[in-house]
Design brief:
Length: 219
């Protein structure tokens, strides 16, 4: 009699995710952010999900690909918003405010503090050049919008980008989502940081900034 392929999933704990791929990403995010990349094996990830190691490779060819997918998940939604902003009639102040708020919102919407992955030495590896390119594009966009408000030579020009990422140090990494994604409101921390980004540039806050940002995110 042929042996069954794979093994039953664990009943407890059960990873969050609508698909096996999402469960793998959830387990990987926890392990990478709590014990690092080098100390995490694909065997540990598979065991945390409750699948065979071979089954993991059906969804991801390597641990590196899992890490890259998590990194890109923190950048790509903001790049999509940037494209929508570029097609809108929003002022530079509103565009910058929306980007800060949206990036903070995204980093608050995950169970695990995946922003911490930026800080791991392995993130600088050439293996993740695709992520580096996207991150540079996003940082340059923050820079250009700030420069439109205060001038290219102003020493504050790169502060909004770092203010947006400061949310990484403001949230826990305990498996609890600080702020679920919502179509009707922004997390108060995201609003606070976006306000702070414009305040540090001495730029006036757009009166309709929250509603317009939510509308652009929805688009």
């Amino acid at each position: 009699m042929a042996r069954a392929v794979g093994r039953p999933r664990k009943n407890s704990p059960r990873r969050r995710g609508a698909t096996a791929r999402e469960e793998i990403l959830d387990a990987s995010a926890e392990l990478f952010t709590t014990q690092g990349f080098a100390s995490t094996s694909t065997h540990q990830i598979a065991d945390a999900v409750g699948i065979r190691q071979a089954s993991l490779y059906y969804h991801f060819p390597s641990k590196t690909e899992i890490f890259l997918t998590l990194l890109k998940s923190t950048i790509e939604p903001s790049m999509e918003l940037a494209a929508a902003l570029g097609e809108s009639d929003a002022s530079p102040a509103l565009r910058l405010w929306a980007l800060v708020a949206a990036e903070a919102r995204l980093l608050l919407s995950t169970r695990w503090n995946i922003g911490r992955l930026y800080q791991l030495p392995v993130a600088a590896s050439e293996e993740f050049s695709e992520y580096h390119t996207q991150r540079t594009e996003l940082r340059d966009l923050f820079h250009s919008l700030s420069a439109a408000l205060v001038g290219e030579d102003d020493p504050r020009v790169d502060l909004p980008f770092h203010i947006a990422l400061s949310v990484i140090e403001m949230r826990e990494n305990d498996g609890t989502i600080p702020a679920e994604l919502s179509d009707t409101e922004l997390p108060h921390i995201a609003v606070m940081l976006a306000d702070a980004a414009l305040d540090v540039l001495h730029a006036e806050l757009p009166a309709d900034r929250v509603d317009r940002t939510l509308a652009l995110i929805d688009v």
